[in-house]
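worker-03 picked up job from queue 'complexes'. Input manifest follows; two sequence lines, order preserved.
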Amino acid sequence: MSVSGFYFDGRSARRYTVSLELRGDVLHVIGDAVERSEALADIKVPAPLGDTPRLILFADGARCEVVDRAGFDALLQTAGHAPSLIARMEARWTYAVASLLVTLALIAAAYVWGLPYAAREAAERMPEKVLVMMDGQFLKTFDGRLLEPTKLSSARQQALVSRLRAMHWPDEAAKPDRILFRSAPHIGPNAFALPGGTVVMLDELVMLAQNDEEILAVLAHEMGHVTERHALRQMLQASVVGLAMAWYVGDVSTILAAAPSALLETRYSRDFERRADNFAVRTLALNGIPASRLGEMLAKLEEAYAGKQQSKKESDQAKWMDYLSTHPATEERIRALKEQP
Amino acid sequence: MDQELRREPFIFTGRGGEYFRIWIVNLCLSLLTLGIYSAWAKVRRMQYFYRHTAVAGANFDYHGDPVAILKGRILAVGMFALYSVAGQFSIVAGLIAFVLILAVMPWLLVRSFRFRLHNTSYRGLRFSFHGKNGEGYVNFLLLPLVSYMSLGLLWPLAHQQIRRYLHNNSQYGNERFGLHAGPGLFYKPYLIVFGALIGVMVAAGVIAALLIKGTSLPSESAVAVVMGLVLLAYLAALLLITPYLAARLQNIIWNNTTLGPFGFESHLRARGMFGIMASNFVLIILTLGLFKPFADIRIARYRLENMALQVNADLDEFVAGVQVNASAAGEEMAEMFDIDIAI
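worker-03 finished. Artifact:
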């Protein structure tokens, strides 16, 4: 049997119409100005690819293109040239659907388990020195812009620092060693821990607190973030998600890529908040401070931030907002804290 | 050459459903192998598009070696990681990494074009790229920097120079490509776009100002509303501009490109391009990305089927030129950093 195709010699662009024949283990290419015989072992037959022409590649750069794929298969399958597994998978819808399901499962698994695991492992291996350097960089960027010098008296600062230093921690490594005071009228009452363990306490928070125990409770929460390197992990996870999104949607729109990745990251931070709350509860218990102090402080913070606009109409949106917000709904956290002894 | 020109249209026979199967199987395997298979997947993808593209009764083909592509990808990921990590440590470290990457980028781009063209064939003959590294640094680093410093005023000139460098150094068999479009041709669509953009933003600003005039908004929020509307008009205009520029520039470039005695024709329409890009965009979002392979096919078909080769000599007279080997590293790096200059 024979099949017709085109032959190109690899030295000129000339197209020869030829017919291909298989006699035993030898392929014969016969045309007007071509007569070539090659042992099957010396030619390459690339796997089929969709409806594209089938190819035969010769060692010297010459090639044959055959549009008649069925004829080509009939000619060469007798010689043991079955299509590769991948080519067979690409040709069937059942494999395509199976691949789609496996792909979705893989992406979901990577997002739910793989990414947090990898970020935790990477964060734990990050040298302490680097983290401290990052803290310095952060302060350099924000001091004089968002952060202003503290207005607290040095006696007040001293008193807070010494109370903090006297605290017991579930993990001695969690002990805060750099505590800075700043004022930030634009941020409002807050305290935050930088990835390297530097704790920044804002005047507004100190003012808002009714007693020092509330301040210590917030600090214990922040140290929960520090011991587990939440900020760093969050950063690593966010950059991987962002990168994957940008790569995937990149040619559609880079602006669009930012939105879903911001949504996807929130789940992590909600977990982190809960873990930091648990850490704070353990720390407070060690120091004989009731866990409710943190809850009280959270309630006050929420009041300070959003107090005015809260109305009953919005409660329907609460669940949706809970998903969107970086902090799990404060109410939910306060409730969880109240359940603590 | 007094011979009559014969018009040979480009024909693209790829189909969305067929490509979807190839795409999803290869994506799945790439994920299962933690990205290693992606190099093989890329070869399949390139081969699918090239082998489905025909002109004058013959197809193109792609010959990239997956192992070379994989090495390039590993290098690209390494460099990208270095850059992102360095930026987190300190501004200085980030800057050093940025400058280092900038310094090797032109060299990598030259390698990338060499790799791509060397691994493209038509009628059994390879293409090749002979651009020199020095000129690569001028075209891929110096000119973009200068046009950046000129606030983009020199960008059309830089774009023309880059295309000229790419085309004039590209070869099929032993025939050179040539680009004969001067900077003026490149300035025209860019100036139209620039003018339209300014006009739309001014119009939006005026309309917003008139609308607000009647209301008693405090001046601060009035300014915010006007700015918001102007920004919105700008984004809407961008949606129209991207397909317009893509269509016009492809036409300018290919209508003025020669290959030895041959010429090219390109008749893309901004309207057609907009229709495809806009519907692709919407469908990709609605299908959470599953429409991507169909979108790729649609855009490739539109771009190719509006192109033709003008033949006035016998194609068969081309003979193979000398072939060079090129590493895949450059090409992968360009893909990773998305500074790929579209053809």
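worker-03 released lock.
The beta strands of chain A are 2-8, 16-23, 26-31, 35-39, 54-57, 63-66, 148-149, 179-183, 191-193, 199-202.
Chain A has a mean pLDDT of 78.
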